[in-house]
Every structure is written in structure tokens, then in C-alpha cells.
């Protein structure tokens, strides 16, 4: 029997439940995946809270979870990139979600083959952080070797992915993190790691080609103040006001997670080569997902991604 994490209405953690469901057949361009592991992201509870209901709509129950790794069960008409039995990773459909369940339907363009030497837990973590970091650094900022990037929150999941992708492209990296994470940041190649709790970023003398605010707590004034002439501020939390400002101010680039096949294949290659790894703080069964999401939503930090394994009782 298939089961998944879902909710019957928008709201708080109390709306979540693990429930049985029937998996639809994959349509044209879609793939049915038996999920082995799924990673939890803040977007999961933000969607449940109704922050994106203008897109997700009013049909319930609604499934939860975006990032996954598993095995292809069936393919829909026109799918040629994958076959039954392929091990894959990345994202479920944005509007439908469903990665936090035993099986899910995904678009074939939002999947990549899992490298044989990458375990399912690590593969499940790559999706949202890896794609978002790539969209920011290369699609929006067009960073190149020798340039200098500042990441506000460089040891969060997106920040950690951005550090590794940037360093792999020859980009210099500095950024903020907690004092406890500084050693890990330096080990990944962060040149200057600043304690976010005690550093006044407006007083830094260095200027950067791009500032990536993964922690979403920089003021516009501080972010722009850290830029070199021609630099860009990468913002993960678009608002109507920011969209309007970005039209007139080319320094502001709004970043939204936008997976595509070539990008996912690049992430797969780098992960397979060992150049991209995300920290995992907890691995647990689906039955624990509600408690874990509730704790994360309330501010608990795990020191890495929370991964849900569907093969654990």
C-alpha cells in the first residue's frame, strides 16, 4: 500500500498526517518513482502554511515533499531518458509535491540518474539546494573563475552547495556562518568565514562580485554595500516589491529554484566525482517526519539535512 505525508487544509504542523493513497499512472513526459529517500526543505512547510496557495490552489488533500531519490517504476509516453529500474534523484512536481511518500510522479525533465557511487540519502539532498545554488551563481550572476562571492549563510544547505559549486568553478568564496561551523566552512574552501552573530557586515572593507543572501536576513542597503561596481545581489525571497525593484535595478537578481535536465546532469556528475556533498543531520523513517518537520519549523537546527527513508519501519 502506498502512503505519504499530506494535509487536508493549509495551516500549522497539526494539519500533517501520514495517509494511504493511490498513485496515478505517469502521463506524457512523466515518470513514476519508488522513493527510497526524501530530504526535507523549508519550502515543504511554507507550502503547507499556504504561502504559495496562489500556485498550489485549493484542492485537498495535498502531498508534501520536493526532493527525492529512488528507482523508476514506470515511464509515461514520450519518455526516453529513463527506463524502469533506473536509480534517479531530484524533484517531484512543484504543485503536486509528494516526495515524502513511498512513490511519486515526477516530470522527466526534473530528474537525473543517480551516480552509482552516491548513496540514496546524499542523492535526495541534492535537488533544491543544488539547483537553487546553480541558478543563482551561474544562471543569474554568471560567475567565473577568479571572481569573489560572498555567501550570507554559507553553511546552510543552499549555502553549502553554493560554496562547493563556486569553488569547483574557480570562484573565491567568503561568507557568514555560526562559530561552530567555521572549521567546516574553511575545510570546504571558504577564504574568510565570519561569525554571523558578532560581525557587522556593513563594516567589511572587501567588496564582492556577487552577494548571495541564503539566510534571507540582509537588508538591501547592506547587501548592495558589499558589492563591487557591476556586482549583483542574489535574493532567494522574491516579493512584489523586489520584482518591481529588480526591473529598474540590475544589481538585484531574484532567484527561484528552476530545475532542468542539463543542470541536473551536471550536479550528478559533480556529486559522482565527490565534488558536491551536503551535510546530513538526521535520517529517520516516514513515521517520524511530522515530528521532525514540526521541530525544524519551530527553529531546531540539526547541523545538516533531515532525510526520510521509506524503507525504515
TrEMBL record:
It holds the Pfam family ADH_N. CDD domains: MDR1. Coiled coil: none annotated. SUPFAM superfamilies: GroES-like, NAD(P)-binding Rossmann-fold domains. InterPro entries: ADH-like_N (IPR013154), Chloroplast_QOR (IPR052733), ER (IPR020843), GroES-like_sf (IPR011032), NAD(P)-bd_dom_sf (IPR036291). Residues 11-308 form the Enoyl reductase (ER) domain. It comes from the Bacteria. GO terms for molecular function: oxidoreductase activity. PANTHER family: ZINC-TYPE ALCOHOL DEHYDROGENASE-LIKE PROTEIN C16A3.02C. This is Zinc-type alcohol dehydrogenase-like protein.
